[in-house]
Specification:
Layout: H1 2-13, H2 18-21, E1 27-34, E2 40-46, E3 51-60, E4 67-78, E5 84-92, E6 95-99, H3 111-119
Antiparallel strand pairs: 1-2, 2-3, 3-4, 4-5, 5-6
C-alpha cells in the first residue's frame, strides 16, 4: 500500500502539461554531403532560430586506419529572453576553439609571467 501511495504522489507531483507547453519546431532546411575519404559538410535550420553549419575534413594518418578530422563550423540560437547568439568554431588537433561576441576572451599574458618563462624555460 505504501508503494502505491508513493507512486500516486509522484505522478501527481509531475508536471502534467509539460509536452503541451513545448512549441512544435519545424525543420526549414537540412543538408548532408560526404565523400568516400571521410570529408563531409552538413547544416540545418529550424523555425525557432536555431541554425548549424559544419564542414569536416579528414586528415589521413601515417598508418592505415589512423588520422583525424578537422572541423570548421558555426551554430546560432535564440535565448529564452529572445537574444540571438552565434558561435563560430574550429576543432582539430589544437582542440575545440570557439569564438563569439558573447564569449569571454582570455586576458593577455602578464609581462612578469612571460619574463619568468624566458628566464626559466625548463619549468615550462
Amino acid at each position: 500500500m505504501a508503494i502505491f501511495v508513493c507512486l500516486v504522489a509522484a505522478a501527481a507531483a509531475a508536471p502534467q502539461d509539460y509536452y503541451q507547453q513545448q512549441p512544435e519546431i519545424r525543420l526549414l532546411s537540412y543538408r548532408f554531403n560526404s565523400d568516400d575519404k571521410g570529408n563531409y559538410e552538413y547544416g540545418y535550420e529550424q523555425d525557432n532560430g536555431q541554425k548549424v553549419e559544419e564542414v569536416g575534413k579528414s586528415i589521413p594518418g601515417y598508418e592505415p586506419e589512423t588520422g583525424s578530422i578537422s572541423k570548421v563550423g558555426s551554430f546560432e540560437f535564440v535565448s529564452p529572453e529572445g537574444q540571438q547568439f552565434r558561435v563560430d568554431y574550429t576543432s582539430g588537433e589544437e582542440g575545440f576553439l570557439p569564438s563569439g561576441a558573447h564569449l569571454p576572451v582570455a586576458p593577455a599574458q602578464l609581462p612578469e609571467y612571460q619574463a619568468h618563462q624566458q628566464q626559466f624555460p625548463e619549468l615550462y
